[in-house]
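As a warm-up, study this chain.
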Amino acid sequence: MANTPDYSWPPMDARKIIGKSPRRLDGPQKASGRARYTSDLKMKDMLYAIYLTSPHAHARITSIDTGAAEKMNGV
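Now compare it with the structure written out below.
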């Protein structure tokens, strides 16, 4: 049988973290829907992007039609 370490845990009343419920500072905001996330930010002149993947595994992309994007203002 392998040697297993002998753990000696402190008694329950002396433990600071183990066996206790953590106090979540952002819990009330998240539960009420008032929490702000980075996806909630809308800044002036914010740039948006879409990550597009190919539905074909190991396919080689030979061309991308950028015509619609080039017609947009600021592109």
